[in-house]
């Protein structure tokens, strides 16, 4: 199972990468995609939508189950990965390369309340 050190993790199995401009890129973890199995559908939030931390922001679905995506922080959706509409299973092949949406946080991002790689490994072990 891959858990890159340069990301932070939510207990709901989303990863967060802080970009140089302060925006956030969000995807689903390797553990999360393994639990779901091959993805057949990804529902993403609309660009421009305001999200509140913890709010359901989309859905990832496999043949066996569906799981909600959650906003890691308050913010506005900047972009969504449109390629996942046609190839949602790309997340299974490369979960840390296939981002789901990008968010402009309402305030500067703080990793407080998130897990580092070691903490996330403890969570899923």
Automatic annotation (TrEMBL):
The keyword Acyltransferase does not apply. Keywords: Lipoyl. Its cofactor is (R)-lipoate. The keyword Cytoplasm does not apply. Pfam families: GCV_H. Binds 1 lipoyl cofactor covalently. PROSITE patterns: BIOTINYL_LIPOYL. It comes from the Bacteria. InterPro entries: Biotin_lipoyl (IPR000089), GCV_H (IPR002930), GCV_H/Fam206 (IPR033753), GCV_H_sub (IPR017453), Single_hybrid_motif (IPR011053). The modification N6-lipoyllysine is found at residue 64. Residues 23-104 form the Lipoyl-binding domain. The glycine cleavage system is composed of four proteins: P, T, L and H. The glycine cleavage system catalyzes the degradation of glycine. The H protein shuttles the methylamine group of glycine from the P protein to the T protein. Belongs to the GcvH family. This is Glycine cleavage system H protein. The gene is gcvH.
